[in-house]
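Researcher: Here's the sequence for the chain we discussed earlier.
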Amino acid sequence: MTDPEPIVHGPFVPPQPAEADTSPGYGVPHPPGGPGGRFSADARLLVEAGAAWEGLSDALGRVWSLAAEGWGYPGLFGFADTLGIAGALHLELNRVLVDAAADGTAVTRSLAHGLVETANDVSGTDRTAGDNFRALRTRAGS
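Model: Thanks. This is the structure I predict for it:
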């Protein structure tokens, strides 16, 4: 097996993921009644939460459409600076914004749809088969 390719980035080291300061057991499901207990959910609240995530997804979609206007346009600061620092930095910043907005749109929409499908499961009205958050897990790489 070969060593993985080294990560290449510009002159600035990218930000590192923040470590969450949480207590042991944080994020682990604790059903009522202890192990073997069952959760209950209000489907209406799940749908409302899904609508909030859908709204965020729509907002990120608008960000994407605005940022995409500058895609591949390093000459924004004039022909002389097309290959210079300002043009190159604009091109890179624009690429990062467009990619982040596209990913954010997809992830938040997956969350919204997963919450609605969970509400459908809870209510017994689900007409789809499969894992509600499969697309989100696939996009996240897990």
